[in-house]
Fold this protein.
Amino acid sequence: MKLSREEVQHIALLARLGLSEAEIEKFRIQLSDILENFEILKKVDTNDLPPTAQSIALQNVLRSDETKPSYPVKDIMENAPQREGNCFKTRAVLE
Amino acid sequence: MNDLHQLTISQAHQLLKEKKTSSVELTKAILARLAKVEDKVHACITITEAAALEQAKEADKSISSGKIKPLTGIPALIKDVMCTRGVKTTCSSKILENFVPPYDATVIEKLKADKTVILGKTNMDEFAMGSSTENSAFFPTLNPWDLDRVPGGSSGGSAVAVATDEAIYALGSDTGGSIRQPAGFCSVVGLKPTYGRVSRFGLVAFASSLDQIGPLTKNVADCALVMNVIAGHDPRDSTSAPYPVPDYTKALIPDVKNLHLGIPKEYFVEGMQKEVRASMEAAINKLEELGAKVGRDASLPLTKYALAVYYILAPSEASANLARYDGVKYGFSFQDTNNMWEAMEKTKQFGFGAEVKRRIMLGTYALSAGYYDAYYLKAQKVRTLIRRDFDQAFEKYDALITPTSPTVPFKLGEKVDDPVQMYLSDVCTLPINIAGLPAISVPAGFADGLPIGMQIIGKPFDEETILHVAFAYEQSTDWHKRKPSI
């Protein structure tokens, strides 16, 4: 399984991950190599098998619908890279 | 008597209880030890000296009023992947370099409630992705048994801290071997609990269906003491199991009569170092002498698929979890643009290191349209088979014995540019996370002065049996008493 440059760029776009030219080439080779190691799974017959998402059989864990105090807004905002008052400041989504 | 920093939890507890030392005295001794060896091994990212001494004073007050629990006043270090209120939690990543959590992880709350003393945070592979602690964005941690070698990873800082007496115990996290492999490489005890046994609330997420927090300690009895505190249901983690927690110290029985131990042949892989094989054979003979019935023909035929399954599932979950680092709410944020998408892309480009990017790419690919069925869904189905493999083995055996790693610690730089080789160093530990089982690594020998670890794997929620086997083995050997000369 050899990835093309375009495929690497497409995956990076899906992940919204910026890559340098050097990284695109490095990952193209390394990811191709790793994907080749995944080919082994084709040998396993998995017809009619259920997938396992996690290993303990807990389902539909619910909590009671009660309001509780949240963390103080001040503490949460402390980590904001950019803020205006108690709002996170970000760039325009629509121009 | 040992120097104070050399004490185990139970020894230190005894002295505190008898008022032969104080938590302040103990904490000062540990801080002095840290000052002495930290420049050589680089195990810590943050040391909170003033806060630790404050907590030690509080612990001493509590002890004078007659309130003392096994971890009260005992100094510990925490892997920098668990949120600590008011103390930076970096995950060894540039993207979280200045992140100060507004809350404590549940495990931290529990340790604080028992008045343990938190000394600071330990180095790790960035976002717990790695097997050598070389993927830290800040600096590598060195193995105290040979400073040219890696301590293992991703909880390398925690393992080194315990090995060098920089802490009486430490917490780590384990997604594919990240507690056990460094424990093996540094000759300390490391336990990965059953998935769901310990709350993951406040543990920065890497692969949510595989991650577990666990102890790194100087011996097996200490491991049981820490488990007694951190295990248990937490309503804030809906994957934590609502089952009662036993007293793990009751499992510390010095013989293994009536236990049936299986040796899965697939774990004695090609390419396994001959000294590791020899140590395992000696350890298995020892367990037999101690009364265990040993099945040398146990088999887990699906083992050869575990590496591929893991490196599809873990990166897939990681790519979803790490999408949150968009530079808006916290963490590093690229500012030099007015374009929203460019800001997000550059934030990740400059905030994440090579291994994290590699896994985001891998996971995004495995989850993308057209490949989801062939990779992610296929891996989840093979996961079902791997779990059944173990279930079948456990119909016959009480626990399974394998090496923790196929080799002794490797040299710094040796595998850093070869991801496939690096991934192979976790070949004995990954399947256990895939199946969600508990497993412990205990010191089991040395090859030319480099540590070898033995892994004991248990049934789901049966940490007691693996602690039992580990304790019996430890009591009959001296490996855990050897210390690196540093």
The two ends of chain A are 40 Å apart (CA to CA). The mean pLDDT of chain A is 93. The longest helix of chain A spans residues 21-38. DSSP finds three helices and two strands in chain A.
